[in-house]
Every structure is written in C-alpha cells, then in structure tokens.
Predict the structure.
Amino acid sequence: MDGQPRDRIMARANRLAGAGQATDELRVAIDDHAAIRRTDIRAVAADTHLPIAAVTGSATFYADLALPQRKTRHLRVCDGTACFVARDGAEPVPVTAEDTSTQLVYCLGFCYAAPAMLDGTVPRTGVDQRPGPPIPYSRAAPRAVTLAGLCAQELPWQEWPEVVTRRCWDAITSEVARSGLRGRGGAEFPAAEKWRAARCHPGSRYVVANGDEGDPGSFCDRLLMERDPHRVLEGLALCGYAVGAHRGIVLVRSEYPAALAAMRLAVEQARTAGHLGQNVRDSGVDFDIDVHEGAGSYTAGEETALLRSLTGLRGSVQARPPYPTDCGIAGRPTVVHNVETLAAIPWIVRHGGDAYAEMGRNTETGTKLVSLSAGFAAPGVYEVEFGVPLRDIVEKLGGGTCDGRPLRAVQVGGPLGGFLGPDDLDIAFTDAELAARAGVSLGHGGMVAIDDRVPAIALLRQLWRFAAEESCGSCAPCRVGATRGRELSVRAASAQEATGPEVSRLLDIMRTGSMCAFGTGVAGAVRSLMRVYADEFSDGTP
C-alpha cells in the first residue's frame, strides 16, 4: 500500500499488536503473587523496552494494577450512579473476609439490574446478589440499525466480502458521509470526516474500536460486544478498508469479562471464516484485528488516552493537535470509533446512507441506543430515533420509576452529562437540544432514574468522588479542582453548605481551564445538579 511492501507493513503491524504487553505482563505478576513488586517493574521494562518510570506510571495509574494486594476472592463492587441510587444513596458495605479483596469501580454494565458486583468474573446483581441477568433490548425506532442483528435478524459479514472484491474505498466513505453518521461516544464528530483526514496521509494507518464504555449508566456497548460481536468487527473492517488500514485493534474494558471473551472468540471465528488475515477473499486486501483488555480507567476511554493505554503507558489525556487522525499509534494516522458507531456501519453500507439519514433530526441523523437503569419500570437498551421527546423515553419506554415513587431527576450521559428535572422532559432527544435548553450533554446515552429517596447532597458527594478518583491528573484545573470539590462536599453538613463563592470559582476554573471534556463535563454536571435540586441548595446555583 502507498509504495510500502505488504510484508513489511504486516510485520510492523504485528509488532504493534503487542505494544500493550506492559499491562499484560503486570497482570501476570498479580496473578502469580497477588501484587506488583519492584522486580516485576524492572523485568517488564526490560521486556518491553519501556523506561522504568513509564512502567511504574502504568502500575500506579490503572485501578486493576494499583491494588495493594489481590486476594483469593476478588470483588469488584460498583459505585456508579445507578448502583448508588439503587442503594438509596448509601455507600457499598465493605467485605472484610480474610481471603477477600474489594475494589470499587464506577460501572460494570449491569445498571439495569443494580446494585451490582463482579465476584471474580461472575456478575451478581440486586439486593440478593443473584446471578446477573441478560440485558433487555428493544427497537423503538422506525428501523433497527445498530440492533439490526438482534431485532431484525440481519446477519453480519454480508457486506464485507462484496466490498473488498468489488467496491472502491471512496464509495464506502461516500455512503457514510451521506448518512450523516456521527460518533456515538459523546463527541459526535462526523465519521466520514475522520476517515478522510486519516486517508490523506501516506503510509500505514490504523483503526481502533473503543470498547471502554466507562460512562456509569450506559451498557449498550456491552450488549453489542456480547450478543452481536461480529457486527462490531465487520464495522471495524469496513472502516479499515475505507481508511486504508491493515490493522484493527479492539479495546475492551476489564470490567466486561464476558464481552472480552466474546470479542476474542469472534475474531478467531472471523479468521477461520476467511474474513480476516492476508489477501482476504483473494482481493489483495490485508486486514486483521487484535483484542486488548483495558486495565481500569475512565479517562482511558478518551481517544488520546486510549491510544497511550494501548502502548502500555498511563491513560492520560494528551493535548491536541496533533489529532489521532494525524498522529496516533506509532505516530501513524489512526481512526478511533466507539463500538456503537461501528455497529451502525454495516447497515449503512447495505441499505445506503440516504436511508439512514431519513431518520433523526437536522445534523443528528439516524438512531441512538439509550440505556435505561434499574430505576425505571422497564430498564434495558432501546434503539430510538434522534428527536423523540425525552418524555416518551422516560415514561413510555421506561414506564416511569420502578416502584411508582415520584421521579426527582434523571441523570443523562453519565457523570459528565448532567441532570434533568421532571419539567425538562419535553426537550427533544438530541445533543444540541439538551445542551441549548438544559446545559446537559447526551454523552453515551445512559439514563439513570432518581426518585425522591436520594438527597441532593449524597448525589453531589458521589459526583465529586467520581471526579477525584477518575481524573487522569494531566492538568491542574481538573486534578486539583476535583479533589477540592470532594473536600468541600464532604465538609458540608448539608446541601445548603455545599455551595457558595468558592464552589462557583472552582467550577469556572474547571470549565475554562481543563484540557479535555472531563473537567468541563464535571463542572457542567455539578451546575445542572444544583439547578435541578435548587430547593435543597437554597443558596442557589453557583
């Protein structure tokens, strides 16, 4: 490709596929002797040719690696918003058994059956900690797109053989451009623009599937990876063909062990079926996929942080430009899409971009997966059309609250999205409308129903705790601001004491000075919480 011998390109890609082996080797050390020792760090640094400081940074940054000691029985207990609300705002009760270690995490993807925890790799949900149930799902859009395999029985890998043998890469890009497909992870950047930005550079390129679905309250990516993994892989392959990439990488968060296993099995099946590898279908196209496991970090879902994590480094956000489409893996152009975005591509290629663009509203075309938490009477994943009233989602699809108690608030888009009150539900379900009318971001599309049993001060403390724990620390406004916000909320004896001039200045600094959307999102979420619960924050919104 572009004048480079195929064997050389593939050899380089194979070396890069093992670039993240630093975290894998650190996991082996934990499995062997329950902790990471200095000798382990030195050995990993020697094996991976990374500086000792870089390996140390990873060992202390990622939640899965930074535990003092992992015992025979390891519990990952969820403290995400849905589980927090399901406990009526109470913190998890620690397990003190001698053979048990406990790790707090911020989402396990079982928000529809909260509260939840992982006992090893076994999910347990509800107050009685029963085995985790499957995710309920349904189509509520005119046509099933992302859920085409689950709701319309459309088989995967139907478009890929025809595309690689008969269709030009630009034709695929043009269909996606006509569809208006935008990233479904929250940023909503036009997919086709990313592809063209990466394609214009000569040399090798890469495509990455972001399966690090970290927003507490969202579990649609877990559904796709576990129940329809081949659709995700075909979407990544089609993206790779359009971009001119020979290598794709899937990152799956470690909190999703079943999804990780499903994606790895699907890759092996796809290779056996002849969909992946060298000279696919005698087309002259080389394309293969590797699957990597995350190590426990919310910010590693941001694309620059994700690319660092794939190389075994700390998942800290990097300043842009350069953008990944210019300089990503190994300094080469890299396109990163989240799982939901990729799962829509096979449908668009099959049915046409115009058919997709007929759904939705204005620039937000097509459909979106919405995750409704256990606080709703009918929790699960719903595929909806952009532009439907939020009230239809909350009351018609979700059925209101699970036990009929008054709905006090809905958290939309995870901790960086924001809160809506019952009077806000006539807003159209688009990111633009939510931002303009309520100052809330759609994010990944998770919705957590909150009834009147959870006080505002408890939600505020939980939000600041999440911010302080998950900030990557790259910039002072976010790192220091989140820590200070948590201190102020803990010190406050009531909601009335949790606001004031110092909090107002703090939020302004985080909003204007943070390097990425984490700090700005936290500031916006706190303000939205204080707006919705203005009666409890009697001093008013800062």
